[in-house]
Hints:
Blueprint: E1 2-6, H1 10-21, E2 25-30, E3 45-48, H2 54-59, E4 67-70, H3 75-87, E5 93-98, E6 115-118, H4 119-131, E7 137-142, E8 147-153, E9 174-181, E10 184-186, E11 199-205, H5 209-217
GO cellular component, one term: plasma membrane
Pfam families: TrkA_C (PF02080), TrkA_N (PF02254)
Domain RCK N-terminal: 1-117
Amino acid sequence: MRVAIAGAGAVGRSIAGELLENGHEVLLIDKAPTAISVERVPMAEWLLADACEITSLDEAALQRCNVVIAATGDDKVNLVVSLLAKTEYGVPRVVARVNNPKNEWLFNESWGVDVAVSTPRLMSALVEEAVSVGDLVRLLRFSHGDANLVELTLPEESALAGTQVGDVQWPEDTSLVTIIRGTRVLTPSREDSLEAGDELLFVAAQAREEQLEDLLSARRRPDGTV
């Protein structure tokens, strides 16, 4: 997979390093000469250019990229890069960094963004996830379909503890994608049973989040019924 990253700062270089380790081709683009640090990510391609300029993106051959990541520290730049990548070059997947949470509402399909990653929101979500059990935590927002990646740790008293995944009547527009149990990461099957303390990751429509939280947090009655 070929990935172009606009913004060769600490965030862009870190993403590039991870992608290179996983065998992908990476192009780093930045207009600041001081940001071009080839020795820090020697396996990547580097381009000294303004990612908001069509001529620069032509030089980068953006049409050959499977993914574009707008990772600069400027939300305006990230929006422009996302829009150009999607509308001018037809890049299948555009991921954009949100620096100011107040701008998060702009990072949607109208600006060519498929996935918006807000660092402040993600950090606060991780704090919430670390201290809360039974509460739904929103980790990531997907622009298409108004869906979010959400997490909930199944509480001890949950009525669903011990229930097989296939026997649960999940809300519409929700999908259980991963169960994290201790150090194990499980791809759920219908026969897998939910256990108290499981970290459950869902892709869910925002309108269904409250219903999903109520379902997972519902307590079993003293007589054992739900």
